[in-house]
What we know:
Blueprint: H1 5-14, H2 16-20, H3 38-47, E1 107-109, E2 112-115, H4 127-132, H5 136-148, E3 152-153, H6 156-165, E4 173-180, H7 183-196, E5 201-204, H8 206-211, H9 219-227, E6 231-234, H10 247-265, E7 271-273, H11 281-289, E8 294-300, E9 303-305, E10 312-316, H12 323-330
Parallel strand pairs: 2-4, 2-10, 3-4, 4-5, 5-6, 7-8, 8-10
Antiparallel strand pairs: 1-9
Helix pairs in contact: 1-3, 5-7
The structure holds zinc ion.
Zinc ion is lined by residues 179-180, 235, 239, 275-276.
Amino acid sequence: MPLSILAVSLACGLLLAACGAAPGPTEPAAGRAATAPAAEVNAELTATLPPAAAATSTATPTAVATPTPTASPTATPSATTTPTATPTPTPTASPTPWPTPDGVTRQARVPILMYHYLSDPPAGADRYRRDLSVSPAQFEQHLAYLQAQGYQPITLYDLLYHLTQGAPLPEKPVILTFDDGYSDNYDNAFPLLQQYGFTAAFFVITEVANQGEAGYMSWDQLRAMHAAGMDIECHARVHEYLPENDDARLVWQVLGCREAIESEIGQRPRFVAYPSGHFDDRVSAFFASDNYWGGITTQQGSLHSSDALFEIKRLRIRRTTTVKELAELLAFEE
Ligand SMILES: [Zn+2]
């Protein structure tokens, strides 16, 4: 990681306005996402090391609130390296660092499907919209196929605990993701997911939800999905080319996204899907510094590594993706 925490902290410290309040002149009013006191913001940014250094972060006093791994407790009692037999942690708000990696480098082949619109495209839609639109009937065929083939839906959290700690995965795991937070996800995907007993991660653009923009899911809808077991994760505060954001803007993106989801949903996001898949080491480091656990790309592939948690690959589902093509994607080896 080329970027030190100090740098992030400095960026935040020097640019408190960006961290705590006013965005640039081009942004819409920030809404509740921007209300965290600057001191807290700084504390959150400086409290934790990025994942690469996480194994040594023995001083963090907040280990207790770590979300429980969903894997069964048979996952070996090897809490081995956990340096957290702490003197009782202080009752501060800021929860959990990182699931302490056990030091083992792991790879796992888990297909992560990437959906966008879940509806027929409107008449006159441009080719991007058409390409990104999967009809509900087609989606149901995908779900039925996955079920018939014995695929078991897991979450990004399951994958992360597997890569960092060796928690077991089912034999044929699959992860479903939806980018952008379109309202047809709630209307069409959500009922089908429930019908088939699948879970999915929804990556939302928080400023769009804050503004209640038409065509996108509202916070009420996102809360309902979260209550039904869906994960609500970050697709940045606004959908921009993040590598071109300067440090202040990037802090605004990272913190704004996390704070909005945390306050609206009641659970903070741990994963970012980079808008349009664009990221670099600096972008990843900013998210890692704010205790995100992983970055999801649009690079094609299924093979994930504990060394590259901010470069998680996916398989793009298109309007033209038939069940036969889905089967070919699922067989993707790399
Ligand atoms: Zn997007």
